[in-house]
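User: quick one - fold this with zinc ion bound?
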Amino acid sequence: MGKVIVLGSANAVSDENHENAHLFLMTDKRNILIDCPGNPVVRIKKAGIKLNSITDLILTHFHPDHVSGLPLLLLDMWLLGRKAPLPIYGLTHTISRAKKMMDLFEWEKWPGFFDVEFISIDELPLQEVISDSELRLITSPVKHLLPTIGLRFEFKQNGVVFVYSSDTEPTETVVELANNADILIHEANGNSLGHSSREQCGEIASEAGVKNLYLIHYPTNIAPSVLIGEAQSTFSGPIYVCHDFMEIDLN
Ligand SMILES: [Zn+2]
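Assistant: Sure. Structure tokens for the protein plus zinc ion:
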């Protein structure tokens, strides 16, 4: 049915073993890239995925550690002969800036460039962005330093629910998005404006009735055992620390 591949697990300060947080969702029908920092092309190749098999791109918000790789991603897709259109989903705030970033590269002059379809999502709770025979994608605004969305994927055949908080402070919209989710990947940057501590990740997971909690977007100088220990103080279910190229089964 599907799996999530963690292409990067770090907060904004990456290191040689942890790229900035971004994810790849592989299903029967779609290959969805969620955010594209750094050089996503190399990470995607290392994960064994063909670049032009990507069907959709979701940008959660317009911070460099989530979108800086977009121009290179699109350039390399084109150089590798992409013909299929690419839908790019994001809030209006994100999409307008992504377009401006591409305009600086004068991408309209790239000959034979494939179609990019920008899809603006309203900054409102529980927006249905994708619905097909396989899955539903629902987004809600979360509480970060600029407009940002959290994502809820519901798989129609097996009922599995996977939720990604994106960058956020603890907020009721994530609890609502993550309601009874099988898997919640929550940012664990630490207790600061626009971010969450590991204890707060646990609180959100407990409140939402989540089955499995995965921590991502964490400071890479803190040992995974410490991160887990902090989240365990508020959540009694299984807790995992995402690492680069980790695969999470959605079956
Ligand atoms: Zn951010």
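One thing worth noting: Residues 5 and 211 are 19 Å apart (CA to CA).
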